[in-house]
Amino acid sequence: MKSRTSVTCHHIFKPFRAATLVRWGLVATLSVASWSAGAQPAAAQAQTIVMASTTSTEQSGLFGYLLPAFKKASGIDIKVVAVGTGQALDMARRGDADVVFVHDQAAEEKFMAEGYGIKRFPVMYNDFVLIGPAADPAKVKGRDIVGALKRLSAANASFISRGDKSGTDAAERRYWKQAGLADHKGTGYKECGCGMGPALNIASSTGAYVLSDRGTWLSFKNRGDLTVLVEGDTKLFNQYGVMVVNPAKHPQVKVPQAQKFVDWVISPAGQTTIAGYKIEGQQLFFPNATQ
């Protein structure tokens, strides 16, 4: 069997509701149970699967809440490798994961068209927000993300882009394109090639603007003078999907166990569990598998 290598990164959200604080944890890869392919017997290995996922699902604390419920229902452990969505999909393309749980629908559909997934299922949603200095020198505050980016470009405002092939990075690039500014983002635009937490740290220390998933922002402690400036635009909608990796591409994929997770997470039990995950009374993810 091909060896599987863990990579670590970070991320989270809350949708079109009032803000709530989430604990910021600069944590490594979440593991529902410790896992070692070489140390456990075959039977135990058969009951452990690898999930490549976006950092927002891990860093929000959702998996710490969701996966124990799945383990109780199925007896199956899930080792999560939390990276940017693009990296998670590439990991699955290499056969280093059994199931993928990410948030870039266009990239997910491409993954499916290439034959790497069995079937894609929508699971839940949240939203993105544009963060910036409270003084808002570029005057972007409002509900229009495309208009906000046009003003940022015109003002040559400092803007930190992740530039890391994550779902958030893909969304940001889509908004720049919709603004007609894919190649003209202004002299203040900089790519960090980093995760959401580091990007927010850079923005905080330099007074820059940055696009974030709401959950990571809510969990972020080093805010400085930053605040949410653009939210509520329907373009900021952020859908999550789940797919079992196709064994026709990688025979080692544990399809029965991975499919059990997919079936459970889109079932009433799994959807109710997702809806039940709250921070200080605020729901962070909104299930929509049946919509």
UniProtKB/TrEMBL annotation:
Keywords: Signal. InterPro entries: ABC-Tungstate_binding, PBP_domain. Residues 1-39 form the signal peptide. It comes from the Bacteria. This is Extracellular solute-binding protein. It holds the Pfam family PBP_like_2. Residues 42-268 form the PBP domain.
